Amino acid sequence: MSSLQKDFERWFGEGGGNRSGGGKGGRRARPGLIVVAVILFLFIAGSVAKTIYTEWLWFGTLDYESVYTTIITTRIWLFAVGAVVFAAIFLGSILAASRLAPRGEATGSAATFLPFLRRFTRGVVVVVTAFLALMFGLAAQGNWETILRFINGQSFGVVDPVFAREVSFYVFTLPFLSFL
After folding, report:
1. Is the pLDDT assigned to residue 147 strictly greater than 50?
2. Partner of 172 for a Cys bridge, out of 81, 98, 117, 153, CB 3.0 to 4.6 A?
3. pLDDT exceeding 70 applies to what percent of the chain?
4. DSSP-based three-state secondary structure for 166
């Protein structure tokens, strides 16, 4: 057995580290990391809730709660649709790439590392997909005004003399098509 393989097995366990919970060599949750993540999540959620509540009070004093409800609902739907569409496309491409990738048998010390690398790669793909889906969802929800203008667009009754299109197309439809 090579020294590289011995070092690997010492760090990750025999056969690439097939670990089950508990026992020697099992994974343990890091309580400090979990506490920091929970505090960070609560801080972000509190900040968002504070903003939503203040806006709700302001719209309420003007008797426009229904307007704010429409805005919030549209933003939530756009976030969800943007995140799900991105995750589906991204994971679909990853799956297609993994299925089309050439396969071969690992030999020697590479055979020891392969199971660990497969699990590690899956974990990285899940984390990266979740993060990027979150970012794309946030980017999509930022276009709530464009979506609401497109849904509630009206005709101006004026035709553009150059392209012979109704002017409302440039105000309501074109920004929506650009967003898509």
Report:
1. yes
2. 153
3. 83
4. strand
For 10-50, the pLDDT digits (tens) are 666 655 444 444 444 445 657 888 888 889 989 988 998 99
User: How does DSSP classify residue 16?
Assistant: G
Question: What's the token pair of residue 3?
Answer: 């020294």
Measured distance CA(176)–CA(180) in Å, rounded: 6
Question: Binning pLDDT at 50, 70 and 90, where does residue 103 land?
Answer: confident
Domain boundaries, the chain: 143-180
- Specify the pTM: 0.69
Bridge partners (DSSP) of residue 144 are none
DSSP state of 159: B
* Strands, E assignment, 7-135: none
* CA 124, chain centre distance (Å): 14
Cβ–Cβ < 8 Å for 138, 79: yes
**Is the Cα torsion angle 148, 152, 157, 162 positive or negative in sign?**
positive
Burial class (CB in 10 A: 0-12, 13-18, 19+), 63: exposed
Instruction: List, in sequence order, every residue forming a beta bridge with 159; answer none if it has no partner.
Output: 166
Extract the tokens encoding 116. 């660990």
